[in-house]
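Recall that a protein's primary structure is simply its ordered list of amino acids. Everything else, from secondary elements to tertiary packing, is in principle encoded there. The following example makes that idea concrete.
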Amino acid sequence: CAGLRRLLRGLSFSAKYYSKHNPPQTMYPYSKIGPEKCHILDCSKSTCTHRTAPPGNILPCRLFSCKKGTKVPSKRKQNTSIVTSDLLHKNLLKSERKNWNNISPTYKAMTKRIKEKLEELHNMYIFNSGSPRMRFGENVYFEENGCIFLAKADDGEGNAEILFSVEDLGFSDAFIQRVRISPDQTYMAISLKSENSEEATCIIMKFGNHPVVEKVIPSVFSFEWAANDVLYYTTQKNLKCQNVFMATFTYQKHTKLVYTEQDARFFVDLYCTKDRRFLTINCNSKTTSEVWLVDCRHPLESPSLVQARTTGVIYHIEHRKDQLYILTTYGEPAEYKLMKAPVASSGKENWQLVYALENKTKLVDFEMFSDDCIMFLKNAGHLYLNAISFVSHSVQSIKLPTWACEFELESHPEHTTSTCYFQLSSPVHPPKRFAYSFKENNLIEQAVQEVPIITNCHTTRLLAKSKDETLVPITVFHNKNSKELHRRPLLVHVYGAYGIDLNMRFKEEKLMLIEEGWILAYCHVRGGGEQGLSWHRDGCRHNKLKGLHDLRACITHLHQRGFSQPSHTALAAASAGGVLAGALCNTDPALIRAMVLQAPFVDVLNTMMKTHLPLTIEEQEEWGNPLEDEKCMKYIKSYCPYQNIKPQCYPSVFITAYENDERIPLTGILQYVQKLRKAALDHTSRTNKKGNWIPNIILDVQASGSHCDSSWEHSLNE
């Protein structure tokens, strides 16, 4: 144990997203349709966030692109430039920290009051955030407080046995990210991460009278058991997963490289089909997929290709009775549809349609069972459950409660089960557990523990007409008892990138704001995924300005409908949401009085010009390639927040950034804040009017934490 402790202390732990985009994510199957890896992800995923990616080998060397006639700077000049840049970075960081230390005491009394209120709410609802349970036959595995427990299904959890403890290994700063149990329950693979790294460490334990550590694997992203003693895993380096390895643990123990992804735009992850017949190696870019199958009956054999990657075609694989069930965008319209094909002839020419989604419908998640499959859908802001029977060839659709904005599917290791469990929540409604019975075709609310009912919050769904007449959905929450809503403060949320929905999971601070008379509005602008894949396509690359037009229309519509007014309106965004928020701050500063950004992407142009950054190449499918396309460069420059700062009356701005953020370069945020502050002061000095309002522009650089960390502790500090 001491040797293991010394080894692990030298390793970094981490997890993806996580998100795109979250409290520790424990014991869940990968969702097959989660957001793909990106520069900036919606890092708001909670306990059961499921998402993509695996293969890899040695990355090809990538250099800066140079146009014809451009002189390549000498190494001496490059080194001088790097030294100057580093010095500038350090000076800016030092200046901002000094500024923060001077300003933060001003908010001490307010901070104390808010903290006490949030802790009170957190303690009231904490019992709802328990981690999912994984049942294998009579055994139930679960994680709590950094420990993995084993209990008998009939005995209850009071007699649970501790199998693994993070604290016993001496890692107070690490938490359990993911757990996989081998089919015969002989081995357990666990990944650990810390707040300050993007890379995780995988520990393989062998059960017995005294569980022992069999292997420690650094820099692991995803892993799955292909057989009782055969583990496949992907390694992560510089935010990329491009290598897949196979490790065996009995007889001839060995590790072997089985797949390497050569295209820098693709990210690789692993998934096991629900019936555990195949392990899938999933290669995904932002727009294209390729899947390889490992036969779990013969896990040592080479993977076989399902369908070679075709530009613009995304697909994910499940299996049932010698048929591959394929969730794909293949065919028209280019939205998700369920198709099937024989395992022996899996090419897309043999794909047969099983079910197609309606127009403007978002496929949120998909789960396969022995005779049925479940689709969770979002249409016009409402959540639906569709149950597709493979026996009766029927489709049952159930509209979920109108207050529900988010759902979280629970783990169902046994695919023969007749009941599907999931949780529903909203920003102001704590999670409630529901069960859907395939046999009875009904929805049952599970009253595990009495949840205080939110009776004084009203949910309203609106449509705002954008510049091109497109109707943009808005979800609004406010206190039913609030009078004169036009005088109430309004907090507007926006994201609009990567086809990812706005995070609308329950958060204590949202409920606190409702209780204090605030209005909360969520603008589902183009670029996000709220209305399907076409909604994303209409707001990315050369359509990015449509998202800005949508945001402007939403805020204007809210004010026209009597929800607050510009002088009482604040705008909140995180990560890539900072692009649209920062752009609106430049084009329509009079629409808002304040803006709150968390790890924002505000320097799109300069970031996309730097090909040495780990995610720039794969991000080109979202933002374009300004190095090779002059029109693209001009277009990005037209909306990039940093590029369009000018002397004018800006709203107050509060930004949280992370010193060790590998996704959003801190230098870009430092320079953005400096330029914004100068422009605001220039405007004030030029107009020189009495009573001129000078905005507060504040940056808090966190020394710890990772990109948009949303653990309870970090959320409370924020």
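The chain is about 20% helix and 35% strand. Residues 456-713 form a domain with the Rossmann fold fold (CATH 3.40.50.1820).
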